[in-house]
Amino acid sequence: MQHFIQILISLEVVIVLAVLILYLVRTVKFNRKKSSPDVHQDDLMTSALQSQTQNADIGFRDEDYLDEVLEKQADMIRYLKQHNANLGRKILKLTHQLNAQTGQPM
């Protein structure tokens, strides 16, 4: 009986150590990424999607329903075009930084 308890405790310690090491590795990898805070993420897309779901009434359409849907789609297209342009500029900036660090001309 005494050996059974020692084996069980040893097994628990090995499992806990493995989990702690895995957690440590993931934490170190996360910290190396140096991701920007969530505050800097774009919230326009989520707010637009939320406004669409909040105003939706099941089975009810007034005469302005189609105009409202088209306006929301146009707003979303404008936002996505602007976001795409911003991402393109960010890619160019990061490419220039990478080339400057490695010393390679573009």
Q: Can you put this structure into words, describing what you see?
A:
This protein is an all-alpha fold. Helix content is 76%, strand content 0%. The chain is built from 3 helices and no strands. The chain has helices spanning 2-33, 44-54, 65-102. Helix 2 runs antiparallel to helix 3 (65-102). The chain is flat. The model has no long low-confidence stretch (mean pLDDT 82).
Shape: flat
The pLDDT mean sits at 82
**Helical run tally:** 3
Binned, the helix content reads: over 70%
* Spatial gap, N to C terminus: 71 Å
Strand content: under 5%
Please render the helix and strand layout as text.
Layout lengths: L1 H32 L10 H11 L10 H38 L4
Characteristic key phrases:
3 helices; 106 residues; mainly alpha; 0% strand
Q: Outline of this structure?
A:
The chain has 106 residues and is mainly α. The chain is built from 3 helices and no strands.
